Fold these 3 entries.
Entry 1:
Amino acid sequence: MVLKNLMKVSLLSFTLTSSLYGAMSDFKNKSGKQIAEMLEKKNLVYKTETYDLELKYYHDDNNPFKIVKGKAITQETAGGKGQGKAMVTLNDKTKVYVETRNGKEDIHMIKFPGSKRSVSFSWKNSNFSKSSKFLGSEASVEDLTCHILSNYKHKFRKFSQGGKVAILEFTPKRKSYYTSKVYYIDTDKFVPIEIIYYKGSTKLKSMAVKEYKKYKVPGSSKTVYRPHRLEMKNNEYLRKNKKTLETHMVISNRVLNGKVNSSDLNPNKM
């Protein structure tokens, strides 16, 4: 919102308050499931996405002890129904492929440098523990799987920060390393600003989105906010060792609805 020539504090306060309650109204009188479906609908508004990524690893220090760079390509294949493909290629030639069909996580594969074959880490056939760290980061193998709404129960907890944030609890219906995930949703941007991962009442880790950027979706009149700086913290490690373990992700050069070749998303060519 652009505020111009607002000389009186009362008028400024009224303008901000009106905007706030307008955002809250989209969430009021909705169940957790309805809110989750609304968020998915508002964010799945483009068909392809490409971007550069940088992973920075921290261990109780302000300077990263390791940096990994790569590129990501995603493609929506079912017109906003949450089905699609994604390929991440790191600079060391490690490749990760994810494909979702019919609301289920069908294919998840990783190929390490020098390996002739890729390895599956899908839910039904996995050579990895779901709690295993992915490439030494604070993200686990399970965190790489797609968040399919039908695989979770959704509960709206409450509003916080005067309605600026809606808190939702996601409980997995199937076997999971986590017993719940709690999402803190920006009610104006319709995006999560923080996710906390629990096992019972224990907070295992958290992921905070430190920066979003607003994009106009090419070929439409819609706009969408996409994350550009994320930080995942290992709360369990901090609690046990009094030291921090963090992985930060920085995203740049994002392009929505750009040209994507089918060969770029072909798991047989990993």
Entry 2:
Amino acid sequence: MDGKQNRRLNADRSALPPGSVYYERLANVYHIAKYAVVVLLVIFVLITAIAGRGELKSENFKYFFKYFQMNPFSRSSYEGIRYIGNADMKFSMYKGDLFVLCDGNATLYNMAGRAILADHTDGADSFDSSGKYLAVYRRGAMTAKLYNSFSDVYTVNTEYPITCVCTDGDGGFAVVSSEKGVRTSITVYNQAFAPVYIWRSTDKYAVCCALSDDGSRLGVLAVGTSGGVQYSQLTVKNVLNGETVCEQTYSGEQPLGLCFMKNGDVVSVTEKAMRAYSSKGTEKFEAPFSGELECIEAGELGLTVCTASGNGSLISVYDKDMKKTAEFTVGTKVIKAITTEKATYALAYDKFFEYKGELSATDIDGGAVNMFSLSDGDVLICYPSGTELKETD
């Protein structure tokens, strides 16, 4: 019976067109290959898990699923972020979450109010949250830590005290310290945490540094003396070849800070003026301050600058090309001012200002410390004990 059935099947197949038999055999090969690939994939995963078991942590998977939220943030779901702090605590936004540094304790809160990262940092008082990693350190210490949203990822140890740490968007970072025989030594690391460039100065002290978003340029603002007169010097280096992109000296001026804008420009700030230079080092802009500088904020749209004006503050807004687009005064000292696509906002101790061609003021609870613009345009106001969401139209 079986022999007859086999002959019948062979006869049936012989009646098929030649191409059909070929494709039937090809389908069988692909069917077997599918299972072979699955088996190889399972073996690869097992070997990887065994070989890298020391590196696999729950934080890796938390970070992977960070942006896969079942209940994304909205006004209706926001209930406030609560913590215990003081007036000296520091705040920043890191990848959409609120970073709080208080009494050496670093905590990262998501917008639902949950602490997703908490670490005791041994007295850290400074940080940089502008890059891929969050850098936390204490000035004068010899250790700095890098974090992602859920865990520390790398610890930097130096032989001399650390002055400043800055990060870039690709995972690189720079550490300002010193060495024997030099006043300043800045080491730039790539995303693999390997040193790729060192800048040294034997006669100047670096006050701060910054990296361009792609990590290709290092900006240094340093202070020195010449003939008994103090000066500030901006130096921009190409870390790939060591060439000097820009070098500017400001005689008699105290350095305050610098940053790279998204368009590649570098902005230097002293107590007397702010200046902008292109990615090729040519000067694009210079604006002397009419009063004492109170705060300056760099954002996607440009710069927002606050200077003292009588008993209040003068707020000037510049776009990405450093053209002044708005200017107004408020009758009280401003803690911070930011500009979004909706408006320019200013924060005082117990007032919130909104400027859209006309200035409006709203009373808020006293004791405000900081504020940040969220992705939907609303403003998060920070107090020593918690936050408040300020809805904007």
Entry 3:
Amino acid sequence: MTTTPDGGSAAPSPSGSPKRVIIARAVLLIFGIGCVILAQSLAKSSASDLGQARAAAVAMSSIDRVDPALEGKLVLASGHATSTQGAVDPVFGVTVPPPRTGSAAQG
């Protein structure tokens, strides 16, 4: 027990001495800075990997048919999907309704 300035007694700090608190805070600060540096490094490598994938991708001239010459290559294809039926995944039991046509904004 320690004595307070007014003569009463106070229990010791549950977190320990001020020196231990400073050391704990410093360790947490260094750990946090390390996490930020690691996250930035991973983000940069992901961006680099995406750039390499874009450079290696082959654009399809037509998405109406499968081109056997593109077998085993990274293919970039885009187009509009139209359907009057929804999609069903029997393995996971997921059902997606068909896409709506028209404007999403209503006046």
